[in-house]
Each structure stands twice: as C-alpha cells, then as structure tokens.
Amino acid sequence: MTSTSESTQRSRPVKTAAIVTHGRKDVQAAVDRVRSVAEGANVSLVDDPRDSEIVVALGGDGTMLRTLGQLLGSTVPVIGVNFGRVGFLASIKPDGLERDLQRVFAGEYDVVELPTLQMEFDGQKQVAVNDVVATSSTLGRMVELSWAVGGEDLGVVPCDGMICATPSGSTAYNLSNGGPVLVRGLDAMAVTFIAPHSLHARPLVVPRGRTLTVGNRTPDVTVAVLVDGHRVGEMAPGGEIAIYLCRQRSLLATLPETTFFGRYRETFAS
After folding, report:
1. pLDDT tens, 102-128?
2. Among the options 61, 131, 160, 187, which is catalytic?
3. Is 122 a catalytic residue?
4. pLDDT digits (tens, 9 = 90+) for 23-67
5. pTM for this one?
6. Distance of alpha carbon 80 from alpha carbon 7, whole angstroms
7. CA 163/CA 188 separation, integer angstroms
8. Helices (H), 71-131
9. CA distances from 195 to 84, 167, 231 (A)
10. Residue 136: count of CB within 10 angstroms of its CB
11. Is the dihedral of CA 29, 32, 36, 37 positive or negative?
12. By the number of CB atoms within 10 A of the CB, which of 60, 63, 231, 246 ranks highest?
C-alpha cells in the first residue's frame, strides 16, 4: 500500500458469515432479517467471526471498530449495517438491509485495508484500530505533555490530553476535538491536542515511518493511556509512550458504490 492510495482486495461469493451486534435488544429484529437473507443465499452462519468469510456488524461505528479490532491478524472483513448515531464506517442502511446483503453474499463488495497504530508502553505493545489517547487521570486537572516526532522535540504543551488517530479513527474523538479528517487511503496518523492551553498547539498529520513519542512532564498528575477507548495503564511523571503506524491492517468491507467522500457528505456535510 502506498501513502497516497488505498489498498482494495477483490471479493468473492460468500459461503459462511457471522453476525456481531452492539448488544442491545433493539437489533434483534435485524438479526432475524440477516438470518433470513443468509438462508435465502445458502450462506451458513457461524458463531465464531474468525471462522467466517465476512462479518455483518449491526450497530454504529463503535461496534464496527470493536469488531475490526477483534479480527486483526485474520483475513475476515467486516461490513456494517448502521444502527448507531453516526455509522460513518457502515455501508448499509437499515432500510436497504435485504437488498444490499444479498449483493454482499453474492460477492458484490470491496475490501479496503485500513492502517492501525502500534502503541508501546511499559514494555508492552498494543494495536489500536481507532486511536490512542493520553489524558489527565484526574478530572479537572491539566497535564503537561511533551511530544516528539521522528526523534525531533516539539516542546511541552499544557492541555487536557492528546489524541493520536488512524484515518478510520479520525472521524471520531479526533474530529470532535477539532482534528483533521484523514481521507481513506492516506497512510498516516493524526495528532490532536485536547483543550490545549496554548495558541501554538496545532493538529499534525504524521506519515508512516515516523514515531510519535509522548511524555508526561506533569510533576504531580499521572496520565491515563487509552487504546480504542479502553484504559490500558497510567504514565507516571516522567513516563513516555511511543506510537507509530503498525504493519497490521483492519479489513473494512464496503459496497462498490460507497465512497469515502459520499459517506463524508452524507454524515458531516448535509
């Protein structure tokens, strides 16, 4: 995959699929609809998503990102039916479920490879599909974060925290904090400060091959580290984490006509 074009795989007719939901009861009727379409298409539904050829995710972007993360390292893509608030990653609308899933099961879909992040902290490595966030562990307390890219020091910023997002994660917490939307196909990560107490703290887009190093320079406050919304540890004063684009890719299935800019226009520009 180059830094300027997205990598798309060819699809084939589906023989096995799995269903993942956001866990609420309001999608049970949709589950039954998916089962009906699968039966009509002679597609076997399996319990373990990793044993399937494609996963149908019923929910919003949170459900999509969680499922993409669970399937890292596999060859199984995820197609989304939007039962959430935004659903930017989903290709299928609820009222088109039967029609569009029939197309998907017949092999009429694309698979897009999306970049992920590797985070190193306290000798451990974790992969993020969405974002890595460093934020004050004490509500209402500002922190001072140092940051460097590719070994070049960029100073210390007083703030509530920092977000490092993938292109797919750039439309989530990053966007709500004024960060840039990364067009699908960019092999880069977005770095955005949360409520910076500085006129000089600006979002930055960092390409593959450059490591972002974030340090806690606050003398009396620890910094919580979150990977895809899950708290994985705390940086003590003087601690550091390293974040860079990972070799692993998440596999997003889309309808052929579903483009990034079409979804952007429907979701954010209308």
Report:
1. 999 999 999 999 999 999 999 999 999
2. 61
3. no
4. 777 788 999 999 999 999 999 999 999 999 999 999 988 899 899
5. 0.86
6. 19
7. 14
8. 97-105
9. 27, 21, 20
10. 22
11. positive
12. 63
